[in-house]
Design goal:
In chain A, 36% of the residues lie in helices and 14% in strands. Chain A is α/β, with parallel strands linked by helices and 320 residues long. In chain A, strands 7-6-5-8-9 form a five-stranded parallel beta sheet. In chain A, helix 1 crosses helix 11, helix 2 packs across helix 11 and helix 5 crosses helix 11.
């Protein structure tokens, strides 16, 4: 592997970057979730603001565009009183031929405190964390197919909120697993937190073969995959990444793997339905389910702000 | 009609959204203008900032691009100490096929406090107001040809500032009435405030036939329309919306309906000239008029910030 | 000349705009550098924030796109506690045909306090300074080939920091002089500060003929130009401005004028190497030099934030 030592933790085992859930100790994950719980109430107050990052400069570096995710980090940082700088990276010096590491060195020299990085290349946030100045903290906001750790953490927050105990659960992750950094982050988090049965469910073309090694059960049949599940995590079908080769049609996908009330009836009666959003109604999820009683898709969004506030405030408080 | 009950007011008759001037009681309009007056002085202070929206998250949702209008709302919100989030909505999830209401539900779940919405579809801000969470307030920043209520209110502020009493005025609105949400909002405001004579002036192709029902006088002759007016509101000729079918040429339009010093001489000697901007010099207005003594175009801009601060602070203070 | 009286200074000789280093008295330059020194420590604090521009509205008006430079001004303004408005000017009213001066008059009417202007036309910031309201201050962030005064000032800060005394130095500016507003600003600053020998070094096609009148020595041979220099300022080769006519090839340019360790050995042993960034590795500068011990390219970036904070706070404190 490229990264021997876990670059996310300092020598005291404290979180200084959030790059991946892989390798995060269970105690660190629970510390993040506990901290997020305190921020949930901040977000419900009249004045949704705490001074924890006052005078800090947080840079949103979205090499891959995502207005939604960028906005969640921007809100989280502003509610911590940070100054937020959004870099339109596609139009900036990188486009003029400057290397990624030169860009990072330059921004570090401006006394940046935190980089929130989304990049289409897996590993880019690691590269940045390894080369930026010691006072700078890095949060991975999604890199290639590799990881999306804040999504994984907010999913864990949601599951803990509704199900309390991880050690008795059956969790099914359904859909386009092969392209999904969310799936990868969720699997690492769920196994670290002691979930006894994690299933990945999808057509053979969309479920990678090496997942059994990660300790998950692979199901190519939706009924088998969802039966008696406590939690069903539907993934977004990345239409924009499909070229027709992997998938016969959206209609056929929905027939086999789309979550309808009928299929959901196979899960436990109190199963919750999650989705990282934005949802494709009628493609991977039926509107009756997305808007139904078991859906916790909007609470996920709410928890996501609190989780990002927790991650930012924790790493900013620890020294490299 | 689509909207039976007035969704802008709560059961106490207090403003909770600003969607249209149509249906706003005269007392509410005057309350907004009175509040704006107090904010005018804030904008002239050394420290142009009051803490009324501190810790609130205001989202600028411009589905139709308008840097100018977006900026006026952004300044207004920042001077009220709000956190402002600009969503580049054209590049966001909506572009990925997410529905408008799903986008709104998601942003609401982030504990948004206010949406400032511009949309090319008439009625979009109503739809949003009807479906968003009860803690969220909506300001219409222009929807299709329907309404542009903050522009209407800042126009009323300007008229009240310079003319004091609405009940003795003759107001002429000149130009491309048919495409103008500004005209529609101004007409509702002027009639509500008791202006006895409102005239709409323009070629037959640019003045809709149903305006007489709104209690205004339709003039297709500029001299007739402007004679003895106290207030002349020139509209922007939306070049980008014209396809040649409705209008012979910009030159011909200027000859017939462009405001020149000669034509302005037909109005009262102390008539004021207004324009929502940006102006097309030599198309709908002569430079000698735009920069002349009777022009109050730049004061309109100044008043506009105070009016937007007033609207935002009033609706944020009322509960659904 | 177009500008008889120096529009940057008020009648007391105090700085009210920063448009160009040409015409700035030595005392004003040193005052800016001294003030910047106090801000350097602010940027190293836990809470990187001072309330000097609290409640002021700073508008970034980048008619020519530059994410990097815009970001440096945005950070500087936010660390001074200003409200910052970024105008996507390419998509705004100017694109709708509004004149530059109408745009400026409108933004002034919103009670703007400061415009940071980048424009492809030389002189645009002067035009703006001459026409905006008296309470508005203008900072030139680069206009055409004319001037880039904050870059010039941060270069002077860097030289003063490392070399203390300007009056014994030999400074070589190397590369594409003809297209470089940085070179022009540096030359004015260096001669004002009493540097006895300023050399401009580059091929005949890239060094304008009229530079000798500015009191500099023109060298078309790199070895001659760099010999015994205390400071070597490399310029970015503006690939995007080249059409092949002026330059045989990037490879040939590097061979003749690229800064390699071998060429740098001709300068004084303690010479410093500067570059305005972003660097083109292997085009105008060798990686071994850019990353070497004599390079002060990243300190330049750090000093740049402090210098911009100094400029903004000084001009905001002086009245027209």
């Amino acid at each position: 592997m490229l990264y021997k030592r876990n670059p996310q933790l300092n020598k005291h085992g404290e979180l200084i970057h959030l790059l991946s859930i892989e390798g995060l100790p269970r105690s660190v994950i629970h510390h993040i979730l506990d901290t997020a719980e305190t921020f949930l109430s901040v977000n419900e107050r009249e004045v949704k603001k705490v001074p924890l990052l006052r005078g800090k400069s947080v840079f949103n570096l979205f090499f891959e565009n995502s207005t939604r995710t960028r906005t969640t980090f921007e809100i989280a940082a502003k509610r911590l009183s940070a100054d937020v700088l959004n870099l339109d990276i596609a139009r900036s010096s990188t486009a003029k031929g400057e290397s990624l590491l030169d860009t990072i060195a330059n921004l570090s020299a401006m006394h940046a405190d935190m980089f929130v990085v989304r990049h289409s290349e897996s590993g880019a946030p690691y590269l940045i964390a390894q080369h930026c100045a010691p006072h700078v903290h890095v949060v991975n906001a999604g890199d290639g197919r590799h990881a999306h750790p804040t999504q994984g953490l907010l999913d864990m927050y949601t599951i803990r909120h509704f199900k309390k105990d991880f050690t008795r659960l059956t969790v099914a992750i359904v859909g386009d697993i092969v392209h999904s950094r969310v799936a990868r982050s969720d699997i690492h988090a769920l196994t670290t937190l002691g979930v006894p049965e994690v299933r990945v469910v999808g057509p053979k073309t969309l479920v990678p073969g090496d997942l059994k090694e990660m300790g998950v059960r692979v199901c190519h049949d939706m009924k088998e995959g969802i039966r008696d599940a406590d939690v069903v995590i539907m993934l977004r079908l990345q239409n924009e990444r499909m070229n027709g080769a992997l998938l016969p049609s959206a209609g056929e996908f929905f027939k086999n793997f789309g979550l309808t009330p009928e299929k959901l009836a196979l899960a436990k009666p109190d199963a919750i339905v999650m989705h990282p959003g934005p949802i494709n109604r009628g493609v991977e999820i039926d509107s009756a389910v997305a808007d139904g009683k078991q859906s916790v898709i909007l609470p996920q969004v709410t928890f996501g702000i609190a989780v990002r506030m927790a991650v930012m405030s924790i790493i900013a408080g620890n020294e490299a």
